[in-house]
Structures are given as C-alpha cells and as structure tokens.
C-alpha cells in the first residue's frame, strides 16, 4: 500500500506498445489454434489489460515466482489462460517455455486448459469455475494485510504487495463472488484491484439476455472504489495504466476497474459469442496477422524487440526483489526474532513442540460435544501456532470457533486473526483458499456440516489446489435435533469423503478431536474437514489421539484378547453405541470388539495387514453411523445408517427414532451374528483386493 | 398484477391492531418457550410486518391452502417459523392447530423447527438454509408470470397472484440470493415483493462486524424498486401497508422494502444477538406480557376479538376464491380447451401418449454424445409437454438444452419457456425449485456435472421438498478432456447418489437417455439428475429404454445363454467398454456378460431376486465408471474408477491415461477371473442382506 504511482512506467514508444499487445494476442490465439481447443476471445479482448498490468504496474520476479512480497495475480476468468501463459513466457518465467505454449491443453503439459497452481509456480490459484478466482483474491489480499500488520515495522514494509484480478461477466454473476466482494468492501481492502473485462458476452450470447444489472453501482454499494476505462482495446495502454495507478492510490477501499472491451478484438466475429470458446481457425488468424502487416503463415512468432521489452520484467523483478532482500537483511539485524518468525512461516514449519500443547482428556472428564472439545483444541493450537487464522460463517458460538486470545481481523485491526466471514459459506471457503495460497497462513473456516453443500465448489478447489484449509463442520448428524431436516446432514459425510485429497475426520470424543487436529495440521498439502457433534459424547476409555492417524483402530478389544465373533464399527457420536453394544455382548459371553473409524482416507493408506487387523477376516462387521450408508459396504456386512432426510425434534428423540440406541445396535449385532452363525462372513477387504 | 391498492384494507381500530400484533408475537415466543428451543427474536421483530401483510394485503384462502391463484408467501429466514405457524393458526388454516403450536419442534409435529412444505399445505417451500427462500420466490414469481401469459385472456386474469417474501440479513449475505435477485431485476418481476427485516443482528452479533454494504443501493443496482419503512415495529401498520401497496403499484420491477426493525422487540435484550436463537425464558415472557397489561401466567392466549378479527381472513379468502372460481367457470365456457389444459396442468397429469413421442435409435445410427441425444429427447418432450420449462446456467450450447420450438422467457415475452439463467448455478437450482413449487410446471436446469458442487445446497432442497426438477448435467467424466481437472467431475456422481430422494441417471447411449427422461418425468415427487457425456458414444445393440426403470440390466448376456463366469458392469460412456470387454472374453471362450447400470436408486428398489439375476451369486463382478469408486463395493468385486483429480488433454487421451480402454478393462477382467479361479466370489448383495 501507499506505493506512489510510478510515472516512469509509461513507455515512450507507442509502436512498441502496440507490437507487444498484438504479440500477446496472437501468441494466445496460436496456442488455442494449435490445441484446436480453448478460448481465444477473452485473451484478445484483455491483451492491453495484460500488457498494462504486467509491463507497467505489477511487481513480480520471473526468476523467483515465489518471492513472498510479489504482487499476486489471479485470472478469475480462467478459461482465458492462454493469455496468462503468454504473459508468463514473454516476461521470462522458467515455465512455460515457448514449447510449453505449443503444448497448450495437451496431456501432461504445464499449460493446462485452465490455470493450475500445482503445474506452474506463477499460478497462485487454480481457476476456471467462475467467481472463484476473484473470491480467492479477497483471501490473498486479507492475508497480505494480516502479514503486513504482523511483521512490518516503521521503515520496513516487508509485506506491501497488491493483489490484481482479471475477471469477466461470468465471475460477476456468480454468488460466490458477490459474497467475497461484499466482504472485501467491508474489510476496506485497499490492496485489492479488480479489472473487470466488460465485454457483454457470455456463452449464451449477449449479457442482455440474463445480466442487465448495473455492476459498477453494485460494487459501489459494496463499498468499493469504482473506475471505468472506456476503450480497453486501445493499443495505447495509458488510460489503463492511469486507472490502475488511481486504484493503487486509493488505499482504504478495494478498487474495481470496469474495462470496456470487445471480445475477440480484431477477429471478424469480434464482439460475439462465436469467438468465446472455439479456435478462430487458421485462415482467420492468418487474415488477422496480415491485416496488421505480419507474416500470416508464422505462428508462435515473437518479434525480437517485443521479447526484449517484455523481458525487462526480469531485470525489474530482480531489482525489486534484491531491494526487498536488502531491506529484509536490515530488518533481520534489527528485529531478529520477528525475522526468524517470518522465515519460519514462509517455510511452513510448525513451531517446535506444538502438539505437546494438545489438551488431554480421560474417561472421568464429563461428556463434551466434539464441537466443544474442538473449540478447546483449536484454541490451544491457535495459541501455539500464530499462523492459524480463520473464523466462521456467522456461527461462531455454535461452531465453538471463538479464539480467546485473538481479536477480529477488521479495517484498522489487521493484526486480528479471527475472521467474521458473515453468512457467506461459499465465499468463506474461497477466501480461505486465498488465505492459504498466500503461503504463510493456515486458515480455518466453520459452518454447520450440512452447509458444506453451500460451499462445495470451493471445498473441491481447496483439495484440487492442495491448500491446507481446515473445515470445522459442526452439528454433524440428526443429533442436531429441533432444527430439523434442512439442518440435519445425511449425505454430507459421503459427499466430503468422495472428494479426492480431502481428509475427513469424524472423531468419537475429545481425545480423537485432538488427534484429528494433529493429523490435519501435519497434512500440509491438502484440506481437512472435521465433522463434529452438537450434542455431548462421553470420553471413551479406549480412544487414542495418536491412533487417529491410522484412520481406524480397535477402541474396545475383546477383554480377554481373543478373536471377536463380531466387530461393531462406528464413527463420531456413534462409537459410544458400538462400544456399549460390544460390551453388552461380551457381558453375555459373546466375544465382540468395537472399532472407531475417525477417518476413511487415512485408513485406506494403511497396509492390508493392518486393515485386516482391524476388520478381522471372516468376522462379521456391523457399522453404525447416523448418516447415509453409501460407501460402507467396503468395510461392513451391514450398515445401520439413515438414507432418508432427518426429522425435527429433540436430538435424543430423533436419534432414537432412527434407531441410534444401544438396544437397537445390540439387536442388529445379534441379527448379524445369527446371519453368520453357520457360514463365515466374507472377508470384504480381501474380496475387493485385486492388485 | 395491476391490482389496485385497496384502501378498505386499513382498519379503523388501532387498539385491535396493536392487540393482534402483540398476540402474534406472544404466540410465537410461547411456542419457542414450550419447546425450549427455537428463535424468538425475529418473530417479535416481524410481527407487525406479518400482521400488515396477512391481514391487510395478502390474498389467500385458509380453507383451501392450495388455491392456485393465491398469493405465495415465503419465509426466507425460516428459523423464524414460529411466526408463520402463528399466522397460519390465527388466520384459520386447518393446520397448525393451537395444539400443533404447543408441539412446536417436537418429533412428528407439523410445526417443525424450520417450515417444511411436506408437513403443512400452506408452506410453499422448505426454508432454513439462508438465501434459499428468497431465491425460490423468484422462481415462484416467474412461474406466475408464465402461467398468466399462457392462460390469461382479456377480462380473465386467471393468474395474477403476487409472491411475498420475508427475509433477514442472513439471506442478504448469501450468494444464492444475489444470483436470484439479479435475475429478478433483469426479469422485471413486478409480482415479487420482498420485505427485508433489517434488524442489524446476525448470530455473530451486530452486522457491523461483517456486513456493512449498502443493501438498498445493491438492489437498485439489480433494477429493483426500493422502498424503506423506518419503524417496522410500530403497532400501527399503516406505514407498512402503504409501502406494500406502493410495491404492488410498481408492476414493472420487483420491489424491495427495507423494514427497519428491532430483533426481539419488547424483550429486555431486544436489539441484541441474545434474543436470536434461544428461548427468552418464562420470567422474561411473563414480564413482557405484564408490561402490556396481559396475564403473565397465561401462555398460548388469544383474545377473542383478536381471533375473530384475524379469522376474517377465512371469509376474505373464501370470497376471493369464490370470485375467482366464478370467473374461471366463465373462462371455461368461453375457452374450454384452454381451461381443460389449465386444469390438466394443475392436476399434474402428463398429456396422453407423450412417451410415444420419445425418439428411438438403433445400433446403425451414428455415435452420439448423450448430451446430444438428451437435446433431442428434451425437445421431443418439450414439444409434447408444454409445462416442461427451463434452461441452462449460460451453457445452452454445451448442455444441448436449446428448445427449437420455444422462445426465451423475458420481460415482455412471458410466454417464453426457455430461461436464460445466467452464470448462476445455485440461483438456477433455487429458481427451479420455485418454478416447481408453483404447482403447474416441470422445470429443468442445466450446467456441467462438476458444477453441481456450486448448487448442491439447492439440489438438496429439491430432494427434501419433493420437487420434480430435472437437472441436465453434461460433461460427465474425464472425457471432457482439455478443460482439465476444474471441469472434470470425479466425485460428483457419488455426491448426487448420496442425496436421499434424488434419482441419478447415467445413461449409456441415446436409447437409455430416452428411458431416463421417461423415468424422471414419471417421478413426480422428487428431482432427477442426468449425467451426460460430452463425447460421442455408440448406440448399443442391447440397450433398452424401458429397462432403465429397473436401474440395471444385462445389456449383453452370454450369447449362448449360459451362466457368466464374469460380469462387467458399467455406467454411461463406460458401458461400451464393458460390452466390448465381455465380447472379447466370449470370443476367447470365456462366458462373460455386460451390465448397464444407469440408475442406482431404481436398482435398489428392485426385488433381491431381480438384483441377483443381474449380479449373479458367486460370479465375480468388475465395475467400470470414470469417476470415484465410492459406493461400488456393494455391487462389484473390483471397481475401476478414478480417485484422484482429472487431467487436461484431449478427451480420448485422458480416458486412456486413466485406463478407460477396452484393453485395460479386458486385462482387469482377466485378473479378476484369475483372482476367483479357485474360490467362489462372495455374493455381495447377499452378504449385505440382513433384513
């Protein structure tokens, strides 16, 4: 922030500007044409925007894509990624190379059909699902504000980067963006600058068919600083540069620059949906090039003077980072502890011994809802791990996510670590992705488990992007009670378990909550979700925080150590029923064991030997979980669950209604024993093992 | 629309007004107190709003909750349902009774913790998940406009009802509402009137912590007619009545009335989060009643004059409906065909013989993407079923949902049946729920399968509310290709299959597409989803439209009719691989059969005998589906799927990368045969049968 508008940025060579802009456009459409797949229209429409921003404004170092104080760039209309790849190549990043551009959208190339942060260092967040990138950017901007507040000292602006976003009409229509942009306005994020590619075209045609609102007025209503650029396709970038400089000068509001452009600028079908999502064709590209006096038969052509001008970004970037490094060295000398802490965070090393601070419980402690023990564990971890930041979508009390020793992150209080996300689940998840993408924070976001369905698009992107986001999801079964079916998750655990690279924990008690947090905090390359009870659960004698990492374990073995005749597996609040029913069977002289299975994904990572230690070959297994039964057939012979929607009533009664009582589970166990009295139960894990 | 502001509505008795408003408030807090659970704050804050609307404005008939031309009321802040239950009782609906109010939030009572349309006739849509109700209301309002355009004749306003919404700050923050309200503004829905309970309190406290945007300006930006009422808690409803009348007078824009209220009005803790979600306490309610000169010890007390005044709603309603019925009789005489068609639609009877019009395909027809055959089937059905209306979230071409013989629904073109939903998936789903809730339309909504994650909250509500909505979800696997992992569904089929009362179809070819539509159109009490390919698939020799209704069937039996040694089951585009691999095995002399399983839910409804006809006891089953394997262990011994995210590249190559080739499937089949060479494969369905 506070960086002066830099007049030197303007070039004195209009022809060179034009050549650069044209090269950006053609390099992009050549990629799409070579792939015979992709989106040429937006790159042509946004070429001047890209040139203005990357060549004249943005601070980044192509030689070190991960420089912590770089300006962040997010291409929210990710389908126009050919443009981003062109910029990365032209400004001199190691990847993509020119050959990479020629491999656009090919299997195993880094130039994927939408920008993927796992493939290219310079891509901050994976975009494509519309509205998501701009919402991530709000998180990136909040992260910068928070890091600045934590680490900057007088004369040492260690963190003062901006976050820039390109977005289109699609992003403007998505509710996720409305949520995040309302939040950005509330938070007065002066370091966030959005360039809206206002081209009036979406896939269905002119936006007049569905989208006639006054977008700039809406952003004013959110509290943004709003600017307009009327000719976004001018080959003279001055108006754009001035607008972005004016945006930078406004430090107490996010800026929204509406840039009027023509989609597919220069093509015959410019300004129509016809240039949006299909290659322009070899002949048309040839014609366009020739119209500008270029050789129409050459593709992927970058004039020498254009490349050398664009590659000045390397020198600018190296100088900028060198200047920063020299400042940081001085800072290090003056504030060695802060500097060390800063470096620890960037390296994503947890502080020493944090897990020693996990609270412990014994069976003598009184019953506690796992949302409540989560609150205690979260607080202990937040005290020990300052980079743990986050909040709730307006359910702080219900989710037990209040942090006793932290204040709210607000305008004028940027050192706050608690985020009041508002009633905005999807935006929260996307903002958490942005907070994680910054590279030095571990964000958490909380809501009711059932409302995962309101934010699933972004939870998926946490997983796809490998972001360590902790989702604290309370009220995890019909134990919710009175709020009824709209608030009772049935399918939600299955929903979350199905997402690749998302680790889902449903701890049985406080001890397992602690173990779940530990496993999730150690899992740096993906998100975790905790499904937590509203209602109290006892602290089980056999529960084990360390064994959560195994995914499932025998929480109540047969007392005499003999092989069980039946195994009852539960998760979360139903483990107590598994334990009680197993005990009742043992009391009747039937060897029975209970298994707690807090995490499917971690169990799947174990050896088959261990898996068959837990689910012993030939022993019938009864499962108990107050949710849908989908997926359980892999482990159990009969699953007692709920495959209809829930009911409104006191939690205990609703649980009883659906048969989640010790008596019913015991009865089911006896039926299962009877069922396999004379035949051996199929060894399910073995039965499904092929390779 | 165009109904004149009715001056007679104003009462001349201010004391009676006040008594009614107080009774509404106390009857609501008494419910919450009796249940010792619920939300007293909003009902107290909105009591005057409710009184003004229900007693002085809204047209409804308590004696016939389902009168088709009734005004619709949606309580978008569903947690304040005690208020709605009070109104329904006071105005004289059959249910809830006073006893029902005393059973608030108890198991099996109709007065559930949030309003449920399946429990009370007068509840139009189930609300609770915030932002959802107001978005449903946009659909309800569009449905009324469309029905009016289709059926009204000069002098015969058969349909001219309004849709009224109460909503709170939470609804205003949710992105789903932003999407739908932007659409409502675009559509100039003059029949939609929203009363915004602007009380500045959400669960986390004052809205100043997270929500400081200018809401009224935002709605102006959407193109709404915006009004304000400063004292929403006045015991004189005049200002509110006038505002609503002014809203009704504006017929070319939806109206947004910001009503400034105090949450928990009258309670000591009024205006704070303390009155939001917990009972006020017996003593406090007593104090409040006594302060107003009432007997503090009496609960559920309705003064005689209040009840008789409120119950005038019955007479008003009966008169209004009688007037309408008399008009409809005349309409019937003058326009018998239209009247018959109107009655058919209201009765939700499909036209005779519609399924005769389903297109047919043979193996000789060229390969066709199932999204393309869906387009043909949809068009055939839309031609035959005029109540089939809908559209796409800006992916009309990609989703193949364009209707050749229908125009767009737009302002000035209300007879249009094709809805341009914009890039608004969640809003689309919620609007479809509203279209379905109106009672005479079958809506469809389309997007890419992967973006089900953007709208899951509302898809869940389609299922929970029993609304017949058709979700057309194309680009259903890594066959999507170049667009890459953000656009490739992996977990999405599992996600949808896990939702109770949602029927998920993944047809193998054009013939099965036709069968899927038939099954979905016959299923009136819940939504269906079609997962459709982007890429072409052959028309299979053994596919059968009628057998889709069985969920799964043998598409390629062993040619000589003998028992197979292996069964290969696939869904969608992978059925061709199952068939090809089975054929290759047969060619090698190994009896093998292929099964197509377009719909799990329908298969689960079949007898165990039929199920074991398809998956023959003791025969190893190999499954093939280009998505995550979750849930398949119930049917197969080995499932070939994808449990990581997808990749960008040409579709065929990505399919090949993940092993979806005939060769690989054949290889897996041989491994499975080898695995069960000497032992019988466990009979999985039987193994999981307990009861």
In short:
The first copy, chain A, is of the alpha/beta class and 691 residues long. Chain A starts with 13 loop residues before the first helix and ends with a helix. Chains A, B: Its EC number is 2.2.1.1.
Question: How does the helix and strand content of chain A classify structurally?
Answer: alpha/beta
Largest interface: A-B, 122 and 121 residues
Instruction: Give the neighbour order of strands across the main sheet of chain A.
Output: 10-9-11-12-14-13
Shape of chain A: elongated
* Number of continuous helical runs of chain A: 25
CATH topology descriptor of the largest domain in chain A: Rossmann fold
Taking all residues together, what is the mean pLDDT of chain A? 96
Oligomer: homodimer
Total beta strands of chain A: 20
Number of domains of chain A: 3
* Rg calc of chain A: 28 Å
Poorly predicted runs of chain A: 1-10
The CATH superfamily of the largest domain in chain A is known as: Thiamin diphosphate (ThDP)-binding fold, Pyr/PP domains
Helix content of chain A: 25-40%
Q: Give the amount of beta strand of chain A, in percent.
A: 5-15%
Major sheet summary line of chain A = 6 strands, parallel
Write down the CATH class of the largest domain in chain A: Alpha Beta
Report the span from N to C terminus of chain A.
56 Å
CATH architecture heading of the largest domain in chain A: 3-Layer(aba) Sandwich
InterPro entries (chains A, B): THDP-binding, Transketo_C/PFOR_II, Transketolase-like_C_2, Transketolase-like_Pyr-bd, Transketolase_bac-like, Transketolase_BS, Transketolase_fam, Transketolase_N
Subunit structure (chains A, B): Homodimer.
Catalytic activity (chains A, B): D-sedoheptulose 7-phosphate + D-glyceraldehyde 3-phosphate = aldehydo-D-ribose 5-phosphate + D-xylulose 5-phosphate
Protein name (chains A, B): transketolase
